[in-house]
Amino acid sequence: MSARPELSHDLHIHCLCGAVRLVASPPVLCAGHCHCDNCRWTHGAAMWTWITFERERVTPEPGSEPLVDYLSVSGATRSFCGRCGTSLAYRSADAPTEVDLSLANVVEDYSPKFVAHCWAGRAPDWHPIPDDGLPRTERGSSSPELT
After folding, report:
1. What are phi and psi of 61, to 5 degrees?
2. 1 band by pLDDT with thresholds 50, 70 and 90
3. 3-state secondary structure of 131
4. Number of structural domains the chain divides into
5. CATH number of the domain where residue 109 is located
């Protein structure tokens, strides 16, 4: 990808209750905002902001409970805490070696360089996409224009 946010340290991702704790090691492959129906419904928000890592670079902290997986109708796997329900991860069959993590659940103060608004045409009328200069795609993070 042409826009790789620089990151020099591990990031820690926790759910609301703290039962699931993950560590993600650099590099960040991509970061963006998804406006698709599934992301909005999963997170109960107008969009989902994510950061992408190689799956092998995301590991549970010692003592962490395992994520619970849900295979969505789109064929993607969404992973969440089985105790509090916090949605933390997304895996697509189109990119089997990658995992998208919820930026809102990163413990550290980290501001990545975002690459796009994905599925922009599905943004709800009640929350229009801001004019922030990012490209808008009608596909997900694996869109050819983002790779």
Report:
1. -70, 155
2. very low
3. coil
4. 1
5. 2.170.150.70
